[in-house]
Specification:
This protein is mostly helical. It has 13 helices and two strands, in the order H-H-H-H-H-H-H-H-H-H-H-H-E-E-H. It folds into two domains: about 1-205, Tetratricopeptide repeat domain (Serine Threonine Protein Phosphatase 5, Tetratricopeptide repeat, Alpha Horseshoe); about 215-305, no CATH class.
Length: about 300
């Protein structure tokens, strides 16, 4: 009889825990997708409350919230718009079950809409490292965030250095740390990070972002080669080029041939400043994935300078 009562109690607890978790889904489903991420009234419990309410079924309830985060990303054209919502869900997931692995890296991929979101992703990755100190991947994602989004090479090097000797860590981490420490060419450093992310990410959407960024890096490499050729032209002839073709024209050209534009488009001189760019992209490479993120980074920097100036 006592055993039956105990089983019954556990079933009641399970139903109660799942009912608590279901409030998130009910709240979420009542809002149309375009505004769900912008609304602040969704029911995502504080992690400590969720732990108490799970009544001993932490792993099961964590799976429930994890499923909601996955569904948000899968159903959104631009998941980064829902970064606060995704971050809240993953915080609950990893508080209830800190021994999970992929949710931490999932958060690192999508919490990139603001410096605050990136830092939240970093806190989650630090939690991952605390519970998975032998998994080099969490150090890698944390280092990438420090380098790519927060532009803190020193912090990125310090994080990656801790992963060098871990089992399964790629040999190139040593070279990557060395480059970060000497503030070396960001193109090769960024390309090294991105190749690893492309090889390991599970998300097609995320992989597409990384592949585009890597493609921009390759285009930028060729553009910088042309920049140097243009500088050589100025030194040799005392004037600037009129067209890109001037670099290979005449009896004494500064270059024998031009590198092809990677997409089959053209190299052009753009705007009043006549900056050399690929006509495919129309701009030069910066370490982010698309035009809206370039604007976002510019806004971040302005915010940081304003805070530093006001002493906040």
């Amino acid at each position: 009889m006592g055993e039956q009562a105990a089983v019954g109690t556990r079933w009641v607890q399970l139903v109660a825990a799942l009912s608590f978790a279901a409030l998130t889904v009910v709240s979420f489903s009542k809002l149309p997708m375009p505004i769900r991420g912008a609304r602040g009234d969704l029911f995502i419990p504080r992690p400590e409350v969720a732990r108490i309410a799970s009544l001993g079924f932490e792993a099961l309830v964590a799976d429930y919230y994890w499923l909601q985060a996955v569904q948000i990303v899968g159903g959104a054209q631009n998941p980064t718009r829902y970064a606060p919502l995704i971050g809240g869900l993953i915080d609950v997931v990893t508080t209830l079950n800190p021994w999970v692995g992929h949710p931490y890296r999932f958060a690192a991929v999508w919490l990139i809409d603001s410096p605050e979101s990136v830092r939240q992703a970093n806190r989650l990755l630090e939690r991952a490292i605390e519970h998975h100190p032998e998994d080099w991947r969490h150090y890698f994602y944390l280092g990438f965030n420090q380098f790519f989004y927060l532009e803190d090479n020193e912090a990125a090097a310090a994080v990656l250095e801790r992963a060098i000797e871990l089992r399964g860590a790629p040999l190139y981490l040593k070279r990557l740390v060395a480059r970060l420490k000497v503030q070396a060419d960001g193109l090769e450093t960024g390309a090294t990070f991105l190749r690893e992310l492309i090889a390991t990410t599970r998300s097609r959407k995320a992989r597409a972002k990384y592949e585009r960024a890597l493609d921009e890096i390759e285009t930028e490499r060729r553009a910088r080669w042309l920049d140097q050729a243009r500088e050589d032209y100025r030194e040799r002839f005392g004037r600037d080029i009129e067209t890109i073709g001037d670099l290979v024209r005449g009896p004494d050209p500064v270059r024998e041939a031009l590198p092809p534009e990677p997409h089959g488009w053209e190299w052009i001189l753009k705007g009043k400043k006549r900056r050399l760019v690929s006509s495919y992209y129309g701009h030069r490479y910066e370490p982010q994935f698309h035009r809206t993120e370039r604007k976002r980074r510019k806004h971040w920097r302005a915010e940081l300078l304003e805070r530093e100036g006001s002493g906040r």
